[in-house]
Specification:
The complex is a heterodimer of chains A (427) and B (282). Chain A is 69% helix and 3% strand. Chain A is mostly helical and 427 residues long. In chain B, the strands form 2 sheets. Chain B has a 6-stranded mixed beta sheet with strand order 6-7-8-3-9-10, with helices on both faces. A 4-stranded antiparallel beta sheet of chain B has the order 2-1-4-5, with helices on one face. Chain B folds into 2 domains: 188 residues, 3-Layer(aba) Sandwich (Rossmann fold); 84 residues, no CATH class. Classes of the chains: A mainly alpha (427), B alpha/beta (282).
């Protein structure tokens, strides 16, 4: 359109857009109220409006220019997908190498951020089993995270058990709670399932908050022991039995952070390995079949009940493991850390990454968690940018960053399956 | 000489005040193709849903003769156990494939219970234990056999949802056969097929009945509106109208039955629909 009208038409179009911008921003941004000596005074800010209008003018021009330049035929999203496909082959090894070598060159701040991001990567991969593979919409995933964290904290405090003993126990307990949640919601689908899981997440949090004799209520549990490396602690004393003392090096806080980083990296990779493996096994295939068509599953003799429960249990188990790690990293937990916001964040990571895609979920976690940490300086604008990015994302890639599915088995060359034919699961 | 495989006895299915099936009794013999026909809304699909456990009948019994001897009461079993233990497989009137999974994956999901006898085995397989690799190879062989049988080998790695309609119908039958059934229930398998495809389907169903290539024969229960297909392949026909059986016998006898002609052509009845259309049959 713009190409036919030529450059003049584009300039007029951009000019009109700038006029609209002046109309909108002129009042909202152009006039600022300040407290004067006696009353409020109105401070005009013409330059700010001019800059905003200029940005709109240039932006519109760039958009029109891009449209004119864009080769006809392939629509833009298609080309983006192709770009993503070729990048995907290199992204996994590069990302993995980057994650493995990060402690070698990153400082304390980056390593801490890495630990945080990896925790969410693990949570995302865990939830991906439930939401992405089995197609069960779970809004209460944080409940299992909380169960894992409190399991470790309480077992460590009351029975003096160490982190590595408690880790599998925390996973197991969370899996039990996953089954407990699973039973009442077996018959529910879609929105109804989402609401019940949401309530379940809140129930766990509120019980933790109010069962003061066990959980110390809102005051939380502090002094949770740190993990050890084959019995070596990471205390700053540097005596015998500590990591620094054993290797005869100067004790440093960064050693512990580095250790924590590798622990969560290992846990996250374990989650990834198990879910990738399960996808190629009958159980994982049954989950995906359940997402595609539950009635057909029943007609083929698949026990829908146990299949759903295993999805809930295994997803919850990884949530519990991540929770135990969270408790040992923070050394302090309280119900504050397990609000609905966490569930929403993890779900957003899964949806943004692309349901069922491991790489997509990892990238989404990096963008969502890393991004929101990076923009911390922008204070309240952070959420604005964030929301805008989500909206943009859903317009450009409505099925998430990586939305293609790779078949779990193939006679010949496995070909990617476009998102269009995939079912998203109705619960 | 033929022994009864499925016997439906005084089956009733009521939805609130509506009686969809009223005291229906019939027998399907082993090694035969039994067709259930009738005008739209006669209750054919409801019968299927009762047999395959999707509905629990209001009263009456459905017995299945087990190959080793004995009888299973299907009316008391949940759906997935009917498919697994009684080995009754079914297809759906509107094709229900796993559209986002490949043709091959569809056939492997059908063999889920062979591949994963229980959850513990399924979880052990994550660590490569429990002889899963061998089971998977056998399952792939079986899938290949049925891919060949329905001429879909070339499209094995394509998503099932992208197949043409006729191929989807064939795939659904192949998927049902992968569960190793002794009774295959087909709900309008010829709906939407062109005459040549219907012809091929008839041959294919006869091959399933008689068994070929090392596969044992499988009895078939069939709902169908395409009278050409029904008359060509059925060994026995049961005619339903308004939830009641109005005729029962070999194709020639049923075709000549005045009650059947009246039901289809609407003789002096309020039921004026002349010929069966292909949608929304009961």
């Amino acid at each position: 359109m713009a190409s036919r009208k030529g450059a003049g038409g584009a300039l007029v179009d951009a000019g009109l857009s700038a006029l609209v911008a002046i109309g909108v921003f002129g009042v909202i941004v152009g006039l600022k109220t300040d407290s004067g000596p006696t009353s409020l005074v109105l401070v005009p800010r013409p330059w700010t409006v001019a800059i905003a209008a200029g940005l709109v003018f240039l932006g519109r021009l760039a958009l029109l220019g891009w449209r004119a330049w864009r080769p006809a035929g392939t629509p833009a999203p298609r080309r983006l997908i192709r770009l993503g496909g070729s990048a995907g082959r290199f992204a996994t090894p590069v990302l993995l190498l980057f994650a493995l070598t990060l402690p070698a060159y990153a400082g304390r701040y980056w390593l801490d951020l890495g630990v945080l991001v990896l925790t969410y990567v693990m949570l995302g991969w865990g939830l991906n089993i439930v939401v992405g593979l089995a197609g069960l919409l779970d809004l209460g995933y944080v409940a299992f995270y909380a169960v894992g964290a409190y399991s470790y904290a309480l077992l460590a405090q009351n029975f003096g058990l160490g982190f590595w003993t408690c880790l599998p126990l925390a996973g197991l307990l969370a899996a039990c709670w996953g089954i407990m949640l699973g039973f009442p919601v077996l018959r529910l689908r879609g929105d109804y399932l989402a609401i019940v899981t949401l309530a379940f997440g809140e129930i766990i949090r509120i019980v933790i908050l109010n069962w003061v004799s066990l959980t110390n209520g809102p005051n939380g549990i502090s002094g949770i022991p740190r993990p050890t490396l084959f019995g070596l602690t990471f205390s700053m004393g540097g005596g015998p039995g500590t990591f620094a003392g054993f290797f005869g090096i100067e004790p440093d806080i960064s050693q512990r952070v580095m250790f924590l980083y590798y622990v969560i990296l290992g846990l996250a990779l374990l989650t990834n390995w198990v879910s990738l493996r399960l996808r190629r096994l009958p159980l994982g295939r049954a989950w995906e079949a359940l997402r595609e068509d539950e009635v057909a599953c029943r007609a083929l003799g698949i026990n829908v009940t146990t299949t759903k429960l295993t999805a809930f249990a295994i997803g919850a188990c990884f949530g519990g493991l991540a929770g135990a790690f969270f408790a040992t990293r923070q050394a302090f937990i309280s119900p504050e850390s397990f609000t609905f916001m966490e569930s929403a964040t993890v779900l957003a990571i899964v949806v943004l990454g692309g349901l069922g895609s491991q790489l997509g979920v990892a990238l989404a976690a990096v963008v969502m968690i890393g991004g929101s940490e990076m923009f911390r300086d922008l204070a309240e604008y952070r959420m604005l940018i964030f929301g805008g990015a989500l909206v943009l994302m859903m317009i450009l890639r409505p099925r998430g960053l990586i939305s293609v599915r790779l078949p779990s088995v193939a006679l010949g060359q496995a070909r990617k399956i476009a998102a269009g034919v995939l079912a998203q699961g109705r619960g | 000489m033929a022994s009864p495989l499925l016997d439906v006895h005084e089956l009733c299915m009521r939805f609130g005040g509506l009686t969809a099936i009223d005291a229906l009794s019939f027998v399907a013999d082993a090694g035969k193709i039994t067709a259930v026909i009738g005008p739209n809304g006669a209750g054919k699909t409801t019968v299927f849903n009762c047999i395959t456990g999707f509905y629990r009948p209001s009263s009456g019994g459905i017995g299945l003769a087990v190959p080793g001897g004995g009888r299973l009461a299907l009316e008391r079993m949940p759906g997935h156990r009917i498919a697994r233990q009684a080995r009754v497989a079914r297809t759906f009137q509107n094709v229900r494939l796993f559209a986002g999974m490949t043709v091959l994956e569809n056939l492997l999901v059908a063999q889920h219970n062979v591949l994963m006898p229980n959850v513990v085995d399924g979880l052990l397989a994550v660590f490569g234990l429990g002889g899963h690799a061998r089971a998977e190879r056998a399952a792939l062989d079986r899938a290949r056999f049925w891919l060949d049988a329905v001429a879909l080998t070339a499209r094995a790695d394509d998503p099932a949802g992208t197949l043409p309609y006729g191929a989807q119908r064939r795939l659904e039958i192949a998927r049902a056969m992968c569960t190793r059934p002794i009774l295959l229930c087909l709900d309008e398998p010829a709906a939407g097929l062109n005459p040549r495809e219907s012809e091929e389907l008839s041959d294919f169903l006869r091959r399933i009945r008689d068994g070929a290539g090392g596969e044992p024969g499988c009895s078939i229960l069939l709902i169908e509106h395409d009278m050409g297909v029904v008359m060509r392949i059925s060994d026995h026909i049961v005619v339903l109208d308004h939830g009641k059986k109005i005729s029962d016998g070999p194709p020639d006898a049923v075709r000549a039955d005045p009650l059947v002609i009246a039901a289809y052509l609407g003789e002096g009845d309020e039921d004026e629909t002349p010929a069966p259309s292909r949608e929304a049959a009961g």
